[in-house]
Design goal:
The structure holds two protein chains of two kinds.
Chain A (H helix, E strand, L loop, with lengths): L1 E10 L2 E11 L4 E6 L5 H9 L6 E6 L2 E2 L6 H8 L2 E4 L11 H5 L1 H4 L7 H14 L16 H13 L5 E5 L7 H18 L2 E5 L3 H7 L2 E6 L2 E7 L9 H8 L11
Parallel strand pairs in A: 3-8, 3-9, 6-7, 7-8
Antiparallel strand pairs in A: 1-2, 1-4, 4-5, 9-10
Chain B lengths: L1 H31 L8 H11 L4 H24 L7 H39 L2 H7 L4 H38 L5 H11 L2 H27 L4 H32 L2
Classes of the chains: A alpha/beta, B mainly alpha.
The complex binds adenosine-5'-triphosphate and magnesium ion.
The site of adenosine-5'-triphosphate has 11 residues of chain A, from α1.
């Protein structure tokens, strides 16, 4: 479904991604872990074409993800995706429900306003937000609430591929549990393909089929979630136990 | 030393040309979205409200004080040739041809270019632009094209309103302070004012509106990272819009009026 080979990306002299090889099959849930600033968010943005990769190839459903012939082809490509941004990235000129229903209100498969609102309310409910927040503006919400609205927006049009950039950061443990379950059920019930970035090991165990660890611009380790506790890879061991000593330097 | 200076000049010229090229390409692409569906009517209407309607007080106040001061100056200047009677017509010609569009344009640049640049720049640094793209919406079509169209339509209207208010400012001073007869003042205003005086100013307004929205959008979309980036984008947008308005005003005046 998603095939990445030798992906590289630099910002000026800073080599963030130095050759990523990754494949995710349809209906699989991959969790990417890795230290802060190692380029996890950049990886997702490269797949979506928001950051132009410097080298390597990204193939999605057999078609290259970059270099679309026209605007409509690119739109078609993007319509398969949903993305939760690390900072939520809600449109602050629109109300919460209009944010969630953004895609439903525009474009080729536009829905009537009442129907779009009903879908938005249903998605908000799935992320634990009641109808009372629907008509508020993003600036009136707490950080964790904004994150959940961003999540509702990402899943609103039932995309086939969903990227979650730190979905549970800033949430209380109970709400984090709700979100973990939601992501898991989107993958198992709707058959969506998901790539999730997280620092939270509880989330990793709840969400992942497969885990990949990004370090120093490459994927140091990848394997089934069950193996993260049994592997003797020192990087994984240091990361999941949160030790200060180990091969991963604290100064980055 | 000299070589370094030359190199510096060369670099500045090159980067200036590259910048101009980028703005031009940006403008062409944004305008091309105006003729290709889908169209975002809601965004257009809200831009019209922001750029046009809400700028009325600023433009009106600018015009009335300018018209009033102009009347005093022309009276004082005219008195040197015993030609005080030219006040109504010169105020009208000066307002409609030059001061209405230029000062109106500059005020709109201060108000609108800054707010567009700050809004789009903030959207850029908070990844809202990226989010638009992932929701299959082209930011140029959704954010830029409606603002360009709204500015090109509403700034000429603002100039028209400013003309009327500016002439009224002159009339107020003329009647209250300079002892003109009200009916005579109004008659003189009409008698010597030509359609082209008004039309040329309104055409200038359309060009200035385009400049204002383009600069706001361009610098907003290319904003640097963080609050500092947005601050710089806002400042640059206002400065660039103001300078371009003054330069375009000279060029258009040459085109319209040089013999
Ligand atoms: N637009 C950009 N311009 C310059 N540098 C960038 C840009 N985007 C990201 N970077 C750099 O790329 C590196 C990776 O950033 P990224 O946001 O992917 O980190 P991350 O792994 O998601 O970290 P975190 O877990 O803290 O979110 C950082 O060092 C950052 O400074
Ligand atoms: Mg990140």
């Amino acid at each position: 479904m998603i095939e990445i080979h030798g992906l590289t990306k630099s910002f000026g002299p800073k080599h963030v991604l130095r050759g990523i090889d990754l494949s995710v099959v349809r209906g699989e849930s991959l969790v990417v872990i890795g230290g802060s600033g190692t380029g996890k968010s950049v990886l997702l943005k490269c797949i979506l074409g928001l950051n132009a990769p410097d080298g390597g190839s990204i193939v999605i459903d057999g078609k290259p993800a970059t270099g679309h012939a026209g605007a409509s082809e690119r739109e078609e490509f993007l319509s398969k995706f949903g993305m939760l941004f690390q900072g939520a990235a809600l449109f602050d000129s629109l109300t919460v429900w209009q944010n969630v229903a953004f895609r439903l209100l525009r474009g080729a498969n536009r829905k009537p306003r009442a129907e779009a609102r009903a879908i938005a309310l249903e998605k908000l409910k799935r992320v634990g937000l009641g109808p009372d927040v629907a008509d508020l503006y993003p600036a009136e919400l707490s950080g964790g609430m904004q994150k959940r609205v961003g999540l509702a927006r990402a899943i609103a049009a039932d995309p086939q591929v969903i990227f979650f950039d730190e979905p549970t950061t800033g949430l209380d443990p109970i709400m984090a549990g709700v979100i973990n379950e939601l992501i898991r059920s989107i993958v198992t019930e709707m058959g969506a393909t998901a790539i999730t970035i997280t620092h939270d090991m509880t989330s990793v165990r709840a969400i992942a089929d497969k885990v990949a660890m990004l370090h120093d611009g490459v994927l140091r380790w990848q394997g089934p979630v069950a193996e993260i506790d049994t592997t003797d890879d020192p990087y994984i061991q240091q990361f999941i136990h949160g030790r200060a000593e180990g091969p991963i330097e604290a100064l980055r | 030393m000299i070589a370094r200076l030359l190199a510096f000049i060369g670099r500045s010229v090159l980067s200036g040309l590259a910048g101009a090229g980028k703005v031009t390409l940006f403008a062409i692409e944004a305008v091309s979205h105006l003729v290709r569906p889908p169209f975002y009517g809601r965004e257009f209407l809200s831009a019209l409200l922001q750029i046009g309607w809400l700028s009325l007080p600023v433009v009106g106040l600018t015009a009335i004080f300018t018209g009033a001061a102009l009347a005093l100056q022309i009276y004082a200047g005219g008195a040197r040739f015993s030609a005080e009677s030219v006040v109504p017509s010169i105020v009208a010609i000066g307002m409609t041809r030059e001061l209405g569009p230029v000062l109106g344009g500059l005020m709109v640049a201060a108000r609108v270019a800054s707010s567009i640049a700050a809004e789009i720049g903030t959207m850029k640094v908070t990844e809202q632009i990226d989010a638009l793209v992932t929701l299959s919406t082209d930011p140029l079509k959704y954010l830029v094209a409606p603002r360009l169209l709204a500015a090109v339509i509403s700034v000429p209207l603002l100039v028209g309103v400013g003309d009327v208010i500016g002439v009224m400012g002159g009339w107020l001073v003329g009647v209250e302070r300079l002892n003109f007869n009200s009916a005579t003042y109004i008659r003189n205003t009409w008698q010597y004012l030509e359609t082209w005086d008004v039309m040329s100013g309104i055409l200038k307004g359309a060009a200035f509106g385009f400049i204002v929205a383009l600069m706001g959008c361009y610098y907003g979309m290319n904003s640097g990272r963080g609050a500092q980036g947005v601050g710089r984008a806002t400042k640059t947008a206002v400065v660039a819009a103001s300078i371009l308005i003054l330069a375009a005003n000279y060029v258009l005046t040459e085109v319209f009026f040089s013999k």
